[in-house]
Amino acid sequence: MKSISLASLVVAIGSAKFALGVAEYGQCGGSGWTGDTTCDSGLTCVYQNDWYYQCLKSSSTATTTTSKTTTTTTKITTTTTKTTTTATSSSTGTSAKGTPVGFGAGTTGGAGGVTVTPTTQAELITYLSDSTTRTIILTKIFDFTTYYGTTTGKACKPWTCTNGYTPQMTIDTGKGECDASLTLYSVTYYQAGHDYSLKVGSNKTLLGQGSSTGIKGIGLEISGVSNVIVQNIQITDINSQYVWGGDAILITGSSKVWVDHNYIARVGRQFIVTGFDPATQVTISNNYFDGTTSYSASCNGEHYWFLLFAGSADTITVTNNHIYKTSGRGPHVGGISGYNQQIHIVNNYYDTVGGHAIDAAVSSHILVEGNYFKSVTTPDTGTSSGGLEYFVQTVSDATTCANYLTRYCEWNRFESSGTVASRLDTSVLSALDQSAVNNLTPMGVADVPTYVVANAGVGIVN
Ligand SMILES: *[C@@H]1O[C@H](CO)[C@@H](O)[C@H](O)[C@H]1NC(C)=O
């Protein structure tokens, strides 16, 4: 179990590379791949998707030992078939693909229940919210933007951009959202985003087919339930010009939630938020979080309110996500003393973050390993917020993990990014010595950008 990371560490620090071919977890093929296609001995080049083949231990692959040439040919045939049948939308699957790694392991959603394909918003509301075990297939975008009408209220302008960007305004509902010194303006916004959400019951899979399905103008509320999968959908355009315009996904008082291979963009508030009741056994994986916005509170075209984990006992794995143009809260964790969040942030691709990524406040325990930070101004906000973190930067940091976990850690890598002061709270490792962390063997950080860009978001798994 301590085998792979050391090899990748040795390669990464530029010491002699003994390997004859591609190392374990390296890319060895896929559409457009011009690199090495031969794996080290003992490894097999395994199809992951049309754009990415990966070298894996032969014993860990379920596939037979077909030669790679044969496999490639088969996939080209499949691709052709898929392209042909996409137009008639009949070839995509009706159950979630894959299984979650990390804290969300064991989440099955609507598996074993009935499968339904809603055609109206009202059907979708019912199928999602009742207590029947179900897989709900989305074959189009369900646009809720105007479904509950508009309302006129007050908003203030907490930010002023002097560089040409237009910042968000903040909706004031009289609960102190706007500082008393700020002028209040009359604004109109959509109630679907601000006052409503799509409530999700227990034992549900919400599964999009293709790359253009999902919900628009409203978020999901996963509250007081268990066993939910949200896979391959878009969630977009929720009053994005207003702070408090709406969250894309709220998870609170719930367990076993897998948010996988989705696309989230242009929301008013958080992309994903928990709190204050515990969000346990949650895995957030392979999503494309697109923070590009015309209403940037941080005056840089990027969305500030990204991930907020504030629950009293959250256990969350964040892995293999493409995090693009967010500028804050990536994630913000904790903030209330006496709570206890256990968060594993591993193998994500932070791509262009004009503010900060990880922000650990009091009560948080965060292991940060194997992430690739490209053009990230502040990868970590440092110790001032009071949280506990183990942020892997050196060989020594990575090997120390094995004194607590059953494996080494993978280090984080920076490209055109800010530096991170040493954050090595080993109590984080003690807290995270759990199967959800031990059993997740990170890929080498050098492979993260290519892998994540090819795998994250909608239209990949279904
Ligand atoms: C969800 O499924 C489990 C296992 O079948 C069952 O025990 C539980 O009662 C279900 N939850 C609801 C709310 O129906």
TrEMBL record:
Signal peptide feature range: 1-23
Domain (CBM1): residue spans on this chain: 20-56
GO molecular function term, any single one: pectate lyase activity
GO cellular component, one term: extracellular region
Claim: Transmembrane is one of the keywords in the record: no
Reaction equations catalysed: Eliminative cleavage of (1->4)-alpha-D-galacturonan methyl ester to give oligosaccharides with 4-deoxy-6-O-methyl-alpha-D-galact-4-enuronosyl groups at their non-reducing ends
Pfam family, one: CBM_1
GO BP field: polysaccharide catabolic process
Keyword terms, alphabetized: Disulfide bond, Glycoprotein, Lyase, Signal
PROSITE patterns: CBM1_1, CBM1_2
EC number from the UniProt entry: 4.2.2.10
Superkingdom, natural source: Eukaryota
Classification via PANTHER family: PECTATE LYASE 18-RELATED, PECTIN LYASE F-RELATED
Protein family per UniProt: Belongs to the polysaccharide lyase 1 family.
Role of this protein: Pectinolytic enzymes consist of four classes of enzymes: pectin lyase, polygalacturonase, pectin methylesterase and rhamnogalacturonase. Among pectinolytic enzymes, pectin lyase is the most important in depolymerization of pectin, since it cleaves internal glycosidic bonds of highly methylated pectins.
Protein name: pectin lyase
Organism: Tulasnella calospora MUT 4182
